[in-house]
Design a protein that fits this description.
Structural class: alpha/beta
Order of helices and strands: HEEHEEHEEHHHEEHEHEHEE
Number of strands: 12
Mean pLDDT: 82
Low-confidence stretches: 1-21, 116-125
Strand order of the largest sheet: 8-9-7-10-11-12
Strand content: 15-25%
Shape: globular
Distance between the termini: 34 Å
Helix content: 10-25%
Number of helices: 9
Length: 318
């Protein structure tokens, strides 16, 4: 693998718009004013879809009480439902749930390397030594003990040597592709390892932290807004302390997503997000790393200078 400083930059994911397989149908997201029982949400969706040639519930909520509901309708019916929703007091809005996020692609060689090492140890630079984590934090007993960390990614390889002694309290799959949150891609496991790997040969920054894994990306690196919203609700219910989002893109156009990020932050959870690999131009920060209530993280070179590819904000350096 590449050295840790350049490789961590691969944690950023780009966001793109993707159409559904059937161009005559659209996946919609009903957002409610507050969390409602499944029966209430289903009834509201049926009421608003009266007259639509096509309507199918695709309610993927893991909880019976949620503030979102997902369905499939014919494309020509979207504007009609949106208009009707304005007179429905329980509904906050109707949005297209067609925003699909993709992980930044690893090269074939990097994927092969990860798969080869899935039952071994990662080698190379030990970031904890490079950043003097032991001297600065561990000797003061600051090893992440008692801290709940939520990771929104591709899941985790729980049998990996790095996680044999890790505390994994939650492991939920929102993609409905596998019976568990097992990581078939590798990105989520790499992120979890940086945070809380427990193997003595390559420890994470906070090996005593409590991990809560939320698989919101398929092994093909795709995700819907609705999966994120459900995962955000679950993280708030668990009262996690820190939430890691190694993603980025033009999500400021995705109102349900940005609103939920603000809600999570307002609940007292510290949100960490990648800012993007779209440098060196200024004004290239990715969302949600560009939001004022989110801590955005970029990349540095081996000489500890801002990496050329790391996204920038709007302010010029002094």
């Amino acid at each position: 693998l590449n050295d840790i400083m350049s490789y961590v930059s691969v944690l950023v994911m780009a966001v793109v718009m993707s159409s559904l397989a059937n161009p005559d149908e659209v996946r919609i997201l009903l957002q409610f004013m507050k969390r409602e029982p499944r029966e209430t949400r289903t009834a509201a969706a049926a009421k608003l879809s009266v007259g639509c040639a096509t309507f199918r519930n695709v309610d993927e909520a893991t909880s019976d009480v949620s503030d979102i509901h997902v369905g499939i309708i014919d494309n020509n019916c979207f504007d009609q439902m949106k208009q009707l929703s304005m007179s429905e007091p329980t509904v906050k809005g109707i949005f297209r749930d067609g925003v699909v996020r993709h992980l930044e692609q690893w090269s074939g060689a990097e994927r092969k390397e990860f798969q080869h090492r899935s039952s071994m140890h990662f080698s190379g630079t030990d970031a904890t030594k490079t950043l003097q984590i032991e001297e600065t934090f561990w000797k003061r007993n600051a090893r992440g003990g008692g801290v709940k960390v939520a990771i929104f990614d591709t899941g985790i390889v729980k049998k990996h040597a790095h996680f044999k002694r890790a505390t994994i309290k939650t492991c939920v799959d929102y993609t409905n592709t596998k019976p568990s949150c097992e990581d078939g891609f590798g990105h989520g496991s790499y992120v979890a390892g940086i945070i809380a790997a427990t193997d003595s040969k390559c420890k994470g920054m906070a090996p005593d932290a409590e991990l809560h894994i939320f698989k919101v990306f398929t092994d093909k690196q795709e995700s819907f807004t609705s999966w994120f919203l459900e995962a955000f609700n679950h993280a708030m219910d668990l009262d996690v302390d820190v939430l890691n989002l190694s993603i980025g893109g033009p999500d400021y156009l995705d109102q349900p997503f940005t609103d939920k990020v603000r809600e999570v932050s307002a609940s007292g959870i510290t949100i960490i997000s990648a800012i993007g690999n779209d440098g060196p131009l200024y004004g290239t920060l990715n969302n949600p790393g560009d939001q004022i209530d989110v801590i955005g993280v970029g990349a540095v070179s081996q000489s500890y200078k801002v990496a050329t590819f790391s996204s920038r904000g709007m302010l010029l350096p002094r």
